[in-house]
TrEMBL record:
Lineage top rank: taxon: Bacteria
Family annotation (Pfam families): ABC_tran
Stored PANTHER family: CONSERVED COMPONENT OF ABC TRANSPORTER FOR NATURAL AMINO ACIDS-RELATED, HIGH-AFFINITY BRANCHED-CHAIN AMINO ACID TRANSPORT ATP-BINDING PROTEIN
Alphabetically ordered keywords of this record: ATP-binding, Nucleotide-binding, Transport
Record-linked CDD domains: ABC_Mj1267_LivG_branched
The protein's name in its UniProt record: Urea ABC transporter ATP-binding protein UrtD
Domain ABC transporter: 5-246
Molecular-function GO terms, alphabetical: ATP binding
């Protein structure tokens, strides 16, 4: 597993308050990683740094086999390099069908000129079918997206990110508001995606994290407090103290 992203010594302050404090982090490709930590630990800021939304005051963020600095790239360049982010709330085009949503995601990747053709070609159609299968919505392709369940919308949005051939997917609390069956499907989907891509999942729900069955990074006060299997980190006294608010 080669390193895809490596952060070292990263710090960010907001009005003198260190939201991220000398943070180091590495993820391989492919890999599945869960990020946990109490409110205010810096999880959102951590993702904002990767996408280029927030610029650190110090430190390095290196990307890919050539170790290029993400800090020298704009948000859109970072997205084009292969960083996809899924926010907690699904943002699909509700009036369009599932197929149209996936086609639009392919369109963004392909650029404005060839899209009209690409989405009508066999290759385009096959790609949409393959993604629909990957996210478990093959039988919903003709359905108006606004009619999908909350879970199905979340999967569609993950499919739209997959349509853009990401190398790193950042996923914020994917299981929130889902039924037990939907959570199980989401676990399978993310685990499958992580056989090809680097996938970082920020999640509060420990039962969901357990099912992901992956390495866990615990953030606290902007730094890594512990890292390893869920059993390993939850046996750590510092982690126990933080979660029990001591
Ligand atoms: P988490 O996602 O783990 O809850 P955040 O990254 O949102 O944590 O926030 C980390 C800390 O930084 C919090 O104390 C938060 O109040 C503070 N913070 C985040 N963004 C800003 C901002 N734009 N201005 C001021 N403080 C901020």
């Amino acid at each position: 597993m080669s390193t895809l992203l490596e952060m070292s010594g990263v710090s960010v302050s907001f009005d003198g308050f260190k939201a991220i404090n000398n943070l180091s982090f590495r993820i391989g490709e492919p890999e599945l990683r869960a990020i946990i930590g109490p409110n205010g630990a810096g999880k959102t800021t951590f993702m904002d740094i990767i996408t280029g939304k927030t610029r650190p005051d110090e430190g390095r963020v290196l990307w890919g086999e050539k170790s290029v600095s993400l800090l020298k790239m704009s948000e859109s360049q970072i997205a084009r390099a292969g960083v996809g982010r899924k926010f907690q709330k699904p943002t699909v085009f509700e009036a369009q069908t599932v197929r149209e949503n996936l086609a639009m995601a392919l369109k963004n990747k392909r650029g404005p000129f060839d899209v009209l053709f690409y989405n009508k070609t066999r290759a385009g159609a096959e790609r949409i079918d393959a993604i629909a299968e990957e996210i478990g919505l093959s039988d919903q392709l003709g359905r108006i997206s606004g009619e999908l369940s909350h879970g199905q919308k979340q999967w569609l949005e993950i499919g739209m990110l997959l349509a853009q051939d990401p190398r790193l997917l950042l996923v914020d609390e994917p299981a929130a508001g889902m039924t037990p069956a939907e959570r199980e499907h989401t676990t399978d989907l993310l685990r499958r995606a992580a056989t090809k891509h680097a996938v970082v999942v920020v999640e509060h729900d420990m039962e969901f994290v357990r099912r992901l069955d992956c390495k866990v990074t615990v953030l606290c006060e902007g730094s890594v407090l512990a890292e390893g299997s869920l059993d390993h980190v939850t046996a750590n006294q510092d982690v126990i103290d933080v979660y029990l608010g001591r």
